[in-house]
């Protein structure tokens, strides 16, 4: 067999890379955006949009990534070795792949190595946007000490310097999956800044914009197989490429402190109020992922596309979206909701993406309260249906017992696992033990209608298993 030759991705080798790549001169690109949380999603989404703008001649909006967590050191090492370059591979439903080298991340800093340099970068007048993908749980500032290196501490110090130097404030753009993500960011940054620099919170309120945003692109974890396939199929040696589905969407409120890139030129939807779009995405796509993942894992599925291609699971998801989620949404201008929901099932079933069920199960104590519990509460308030949502919570509780239906261990990856797993293991004797955790569920355990639906589903999961429970749910819904 003839050996496959491949080219190591770097600026020096860019001309030899045999796939689509930047044609702009990256040496002419200035840093206008500093982004915290450079992971797979940022590189598949926001950095891709900026790459498109750079191709169109925009030069002042390059990205400098910043990492603050210990796990970010690896990203620093990879991106520095590759001069910020990486490959985005779109996995199409027909099995074909479309790779492109993305060049919009022109620098990367690991903050613990030199926090002062990061603060000065954030304080520089050329930095006009600070953006974030720090996960849903990243906005908890209660445990951040004044000397800890954190997103909030670095930004607060930089904003204090801008205030003292008479400079404009940057815009802070949260791209995390939280209802009102801009408002959450505004409250969190203002509160932390006021704590460490009294008076700074008021300056932020007057000068800093925090537009809400909705981001959408399914982006699975990069596996060794992705790296190997890129080298074998396209001849590119990239230590950390990123894979995504072809679909992408970004809806952003047009509210900026000091200018913005011409996002509209690359199909970003700029609106006055992002909330309707945000609710649509969180309660349809994100909550549907949770509806799918625990039942799927318990039923033996390990890849999302396999579960979503199962007619029983597809029916369950569509019924949840139609009957429980959609009635809680606001009108969404310009969106064909039936088509959007149909497309979601098709996206989940894309075999090229190879998204894992385990990824969707990760961090459930952050995800369920933000994406699914609001649907339940809205329907409880209007006497709407909750049976499918309650069954999803029950499937999470059953999954959190840490043992599957074959008696094999489940690795429950959750920041509250030490609390929730022991509760879940009590629920065969006390069926409401899990949902009595008020930090996660609030007062839901006091709702008789929710408890009835939840305990029915949990009992069925224990007695009959995941698949039989879904079948019974679909029969109940058809009869109701």
UniProtKB/TrEMBL annotation:
Keywords: Oxidoreductase. Pfam families: Mannitol_dh (PF01232), Mannitol_dh_C (PF08125). It catalyses: D-mannitol 1-phosphate + NAD(+) = beta-D-fructose 6-phosphate + NADH + H(+). One of its GO terms (molecular function) is mannitol-1-phosphate 5-dehydrogenase activity. Residues 32-263 form the Mannitol dehydrogenase N-terminal domain. It comes from the Bacteria. Residues 273-459 form the Mannitol dehydrogenase C-terminal domain. SUPFAM superfamilies: 6-phosphogluconate dehydrogenase C-terminal domain-like, NAD(P)-binding Rossmann-fold domains. InterPro entries: 6-PGluconate_DH-like_C_sf (IPR008927), 6PGD_dom2 (IPR013328), Mannitol_DH (IPR000669), Mannitol_DH/Oxidoreductase (IPR050988), Mannitol_DH_C (IPR013118), Mannitol_DH_N (IPR013131), NAD(P)-bd_dom_sf (IPR036291). This is Mannitol dehydrogenase.
